[in-house]
From TrEMBL:
Domain ABC transporter: 3-234
Organism, as annotated: Aeromicrobium flavum
PROSITE patterns on file: ABC_TRANSPORTER_1, ABC_TRANSPORTER_2
Protein name: ABC transporter ATP-binding protein
Family matches, as Pfam families: ABC_tran
Cross-referenced InterPro entries: AAA+_ATPase, ABC_transporter-like_ATP-bd, ABC_transporter-like_CS, P-loop_NTPase
One GO molecular-function entry: ATP hydrolysis activity
Keyword Transport: yes
SUPFAM superfamilies: P-loop containing nucleoside triphosphate hydrolases
Keywords of this entry: ATP-binding, Nucleotide-binding, Transport
Superkingdom, taxonomy of origin: Bacteria
Length: 252
């Protein structure tokens, strides 16, 4: 599923939160959105997920304007894991994950057993052991992983993740991004951790002030000038020979 942002500008309540943004999300790739707080990452994910319309420009999914795709059809294609995903309902973790199956309800073609899909999604997100716990009793990291399982249960072609590693310990941060890579779903993830972004993304798009200031292969894009210019932080970007990836060493 090819997804493209074409010269998008979005004005929200008088603020220009995205300006002339163009980007493409190649099928099967993991694209990282990086940039400082308020640079427009969540806004771009919101438009990519078709949850709002840009002021100008287009978001195009397989040649169709995303706004023209009916909500239920869109929900079978795209899952969005929001930054503060929550539920006010008194549900168990498993029931929260089952909500991901709603867009597929009543469909006979290729019917799969909901219970199997839900179990697999919970295994992938490492939350089977909390399946029967009430949502409200889960820790922040457990909730985050249950919401990931809910997105995976949606069986989307495209996965949007807004700061998915929030609340997660180091092992689960790595585990989540490895899982996403292993599943091979086309993914767009807003990330703050530049080491993780360099290690697990194929491509990076760098936003600053609502504009794309750099984009390219994750293995090459990060540099000292880019980090200093974008984040106002002096840092060295080194190739770690043992880990075989770029690492960012910042100066105090
Ligand atoms: N509903 C809204 N109405 C008006 N402006 C908004 C709205 N939501 C966000 N903004 C503004 O849009 C800009 C981009 O916000 P956005 O949440 O997309 O940034 P972000 O890069 O995801 O930030 P963070 O890293 O802090 O999550 C910010 O200036 C923000 O204040």
């Amino acid at each position: 599923m090819n997804l493209e942002v074409q010269d998008v500008t979005w004005v929200r309540r008088g603020t220009r939160v995205l300006e002339h943004v163009s980007a493409s999300v190649p099928t099967g790739s993991v694209t990282g959105l990086i940039g400082p707080n308020g640079s427009g990452k969540t806004s771009l994910l919101t438009l990519l997920a078709g949850l709002a319309r840009p002021t100008s420009g287009r978001v195009v999914l397989e040649g169709r304007d995303i706004g023209a795709i009916p909500i239920r059809e869109r929900a079978r294609i795209i899952a969005l894991l929001e930054q503060q995903a929550t539920t006010s309902l008194d549900l168990t973790a498993r029931q929260v994950v089952e909500l991901g199956r709603i867009p597929h309800r009543g469909r006979r073609a290729g019917a799969v057993r909901t219970a199997d899909v839900v179990r697999q999604a919970m295994a992938d997100a490492d939350v089977l052991h909390v399946a029967d716990r009430r949502w409200q009793t889960l820790s922040g990291g457990e909730r985050q992983r249950v919401q990931l399982a809910r997105s995976l249960a949606q069986q989307p072609s495209i996965l949007m993740l807004d700061e998915p590693t929030n609340h997660l310990d180091l092992g689960h941060q790595i585990g989540l991004l490895r899982t996403v890579r292993r599943l091979g779903i086309t993914t767009v993830a807003a990330l703050h951790d530049l080491d993780l972004a360099a290690a697990y993304c194929d491509r990076l798009v760098v936003l600053d002030g609502g504009r794309v200031v750099a984009h390219g292969p994750a293995a090459e894009l990060l540099s000292s000038p880019l980090i200093e210019h974008t984040y106002g932080v002096r840092a060295e970007v080194e190739h770690h020979s043992l880990a075989q990836r770029l690492t960012v060493v910042w100066h105090p």
